[in-house]
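Reply to dn_fold:

You asked what the input looked like. This is it:
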Amino acid sequence: MREAMNPWTFVVAAYVVGLGATLAMVGWSLLSMKRAEKRRDSARKR
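and this is what came back:
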């Protein structure tokens, strides 16, 4: 009987964490960009 660890669990977990972090960073960037554009537009109206 062989009791080796299955690396695929860790590989899949690493991809899930990486993809989740990438999506969170893209969302954060989009929100920051929208806020900056709104501030720019309000400054131009003054």
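The mean pLDDT is 94.
Hope that clears it up.
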